[in-house]
C-alpha cells in the first residue's frame, strides 16, 4: 500500500495530484491477490480516505473469492504437488505430470475461474472443443476422467466448497462407432519377424526376441541387468532338457525396475511392484548364448540411442514395413506374448501375474484376441459331413517364442482358474455393453 504525489505536465508549473495504490493478498490462499490504483486525488487527506475505502473494498473481494475456493489452475497445481509429495503408488511421476499438462493444455478457458463456479456447460464446452480438434474418443474420455479425478480430489480436500460434483460428471461423449482390432502379430508373422531379424543380423534382434519370450515392457528390458536373472547351471539345464515341459525349471527373471526415457532415470515398474517371469528352455539357452556376447556388461542389452530417446517403436515399425508385415509398435510384442500364452492353454490368472496386469479389463482384451471363449463353438455344425472332410497331415510348426513352462500347477487347477476368469470376463463384457 502506498500514497504518493505526482505532477501532470512539466515539472516546474505542472499540477500536483495524489495517487493511492493498494495490494492485498489472502492469508488463507496466497494465490488470491487483489490490487487497485487510484490517481487524480487533489490532496493527501483525500488520498488517505481513498486508501481506507480501497482496503475495505478489496478485503471484501478477497473474502468472497476465499469462500468460492481455489481457482481451477491452482487446483491442478495443488493436486499435482500432492500426488508427487505423498507417494500412494496409484500413479507414477510421469503419469501425474502428463495428467497435469493435459489439463493445462485443454482447460485453459477455465483459468482464472474458481473451480466451484464451473458448470456443466463449461464442461461440455471443453469436451466439445477437444472433439472438434480431431482428438479420438479415447483421448476425450481420458480428459473427462482426469477432470473428474482432480475435481473430486479438490472437493475431498476442501479446496472446492459448495459443490459436490465435477462439471463433466455424467456428460455423454458418445460411443466409438467402430471398434478396431488391436495391433497384433500372428504366430507365423512372429516367426517371420524373428527369422528375418536373425538372418539380417539386425542390432535389435535380441531385444525383440526377449520381448516375445518374456512379455517385458520396453523400459523393463532396457533396465534389465544380469543380476536380475536367476538361472541354473548349464549342467543342470542339460538334465532339465530331458524332462517334460511341465517339469522343467530353468530359473526366473525378477522384473523390478524400468528405464524412463523422459526423466532419463531408472524407476519402479509401471504397476509399482516387482514380478517374476519363469525362464523357458529356449529362453535359457538364448540367454546363455547372449551372455557370451555381452561379456562383463552390467546390462543384458546394448544401450541403443533410439532406446534412450524413446524411439524403439519407430525402429520396429520400419523393419516390419520392410518385411511386408503389419507396422506394429514395440508394445505389441508384449501383446503377442500374452495372447500366445493364453492360446496355449495357460490360465489367464497366471498370465496376469507374469505380465504384471492388475486390470481385469486389460486381461479381457487379450482373451478376446486369443479367442479362447469362442474355441470349439462351431464344431457342432458338421455341415459337410465327416466323410467329405479331407484332413491334410502336416507337421506341427515350431513355436516362435514357445510356451513358458509353468510347472507346479495341475491341469485341474488350471482349468478351474480358466473357468473363474472366463466368468469374470463375461460379467465385465456384459457390464461394458450396458
Could you explain how this protein is built, in words?
This protein has 434 residues and is mostly helical. The chain is 48% helix and 10% strand. It is built from 16 helices and eight strands. The radius of gyration is 31 Å and the shape is elongated. Residues 396-409 and 427-434 have low confidence and may be disordered.
CATH class term of the largest domain: Mainly Alpha
Number of DSSP strands?
8
Tell me what portion of residues adopts beta-strand conformation.
5-15%
Oligomer: single chain
Class by alpha and beta content: mainly alpha
Radius of gyration: 31 Å
Query: How far is the N terminus from the C terminus?
Result: 61 Å
CATH-defined fold name of the largest domain: hpI Integrase, Chain A
The CATH superfamily of the largest domain is identified as Intergrase catalytic core
Strand order within the widest sheet? 1-2-3
Summarize the biggest pleated sheet: 3 strands, antiparallel
Q: Which architecture of the largest domain would the CATH scheme give at its second level?
A: Orthogonal Bundle
What is the helix content?
40-55%
H/E element sequence:
EEEHHHHHHHHEHEEEEHHHHHHH
- Please report the number of helical segments: 16
List segments where confidence is low: pLDDT < 50 over at least 5 consecutive residues. Answer: 396-409, 427-434
Mean pLDDT, all residues = 83
Amino acid at each position: 500500500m502506498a500514497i504518493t504525489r505526482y505532477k501532470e505536465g512539466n515539472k516546474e508549473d505542472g499540477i500536483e495530484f495524489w495517487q493511492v495504490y493498494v495490494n492485498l493478498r489472502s492469508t488463507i490462499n496466497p494465490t488470491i491477490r487483489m490490487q487497485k490504483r487510484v490517481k487524480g486525488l487533489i490532496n493527501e487527506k483525500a488520498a488517505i480516505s481513498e486508501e481506507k475505502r480501497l482496503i475495505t473494498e478489496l478485503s471484501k473481494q478477497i473474502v468472497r473469492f476465499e469462500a468460492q475456493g481455489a481457482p481451477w489452475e491452482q487446483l491442478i497445481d495443488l493436486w499435482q504437488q500432492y500426488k508427487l509429495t505423498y507417494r500412494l503408488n496409484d500413479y507414477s511421476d510421469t503419469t501425474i505430470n502428463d495428467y497435469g499438462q493435459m489439463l493445462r493444455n485443454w482447460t485453459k478457458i477455465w483459468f482464472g475461474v474458481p473451480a466451484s463456479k464451473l458448470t456443466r456447460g463449461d464442461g461440455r464446452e471443453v469436451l466439445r472443443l477437444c472433439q472438434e480438434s480431431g482428438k479420438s474418443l479415447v483421448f476425450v474420455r481420458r480428459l473427462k476422467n482426469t477432470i473428474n479425478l482432480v475435481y473430486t480430489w479438490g472437493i475431498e480436500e476442501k479446496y472446492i466448497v459448495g459443490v459436490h460434483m465435477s462439471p463433466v460428471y455424467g456428460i455423454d461423449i458418445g460411443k466409438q462407432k467402430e471398434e478396431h482390432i488391436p495391433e497384433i502379430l500372428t504366430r507365423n508373422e512372429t516367426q517371420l519377424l524373428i527369422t528375418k531379424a536373425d538372418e539380417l543380423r539386425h542390432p535389435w534382434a535380441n531385444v525383440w526376441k526377449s520381448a516375445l519370450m518374456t512379455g517385458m515392457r520396453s523400459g523393463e528390458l532396457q533396465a534389465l541387468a544380469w543380476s536380475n536373472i536367476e538361472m541354473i547351471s548349464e549342467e543342470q539345464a542339460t538334465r532339465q532338457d530331458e524332462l517334460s515341459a511341465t517339469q522343467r525349471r530353468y530359473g526366473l527373471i525378477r522384473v523390478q525396475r524400468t528405464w524412463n526415457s523422459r526423466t532419463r532415470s531408472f524407476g519402479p515398474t509401471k504397476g509399482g511392484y516387482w514380478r517374476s517371469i519363469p525362464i523357458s528352455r529356449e529362453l535359457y539357452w538364448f540367454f546363455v548364448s547372449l551372455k557370451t556376447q555381452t561379456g562383463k556388461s552390467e546390462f543384458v542389452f546394448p544401450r541403443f540411442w533410439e532406446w534412450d530417446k524413446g524411439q524403439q517403436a519407430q525402429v520396429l515399425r520400419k523393419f516390419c514395413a520392410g518385411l511386408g508385415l503389419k507396422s506394429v509398435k514395440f508394445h505389441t510384442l508384449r501383446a503377442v506374448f500374452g495372447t500366445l500364452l493364453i492360446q496355449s492353454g495357460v490360465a489367464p490368472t497366471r498370465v496376469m501375474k507374469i505380465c504384471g496386469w492388475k486390470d481385469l479389463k486389460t486381461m479381457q482384451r487379450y482373451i478376446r484376441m486369443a479367442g479362447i471363449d469362442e474355441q470349439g463353438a462351431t464344431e457342432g455344425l458338421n455341415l459337410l459331413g465327416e466323410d467329405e472332410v479331407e484332413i491334410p497331415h502336416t507337421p506341427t510348426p515350431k513355436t516362435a517364442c514357445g510356451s513358458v513352462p509353468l510347472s507346479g500347477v495341475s491341469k485341474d487347477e488350471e482349468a478351474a482358474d480358466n473357468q473363474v476368469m472366463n466368468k469374470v470376463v463375461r460379467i465385465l463384457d456384459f457390464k461394458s455393453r450396458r
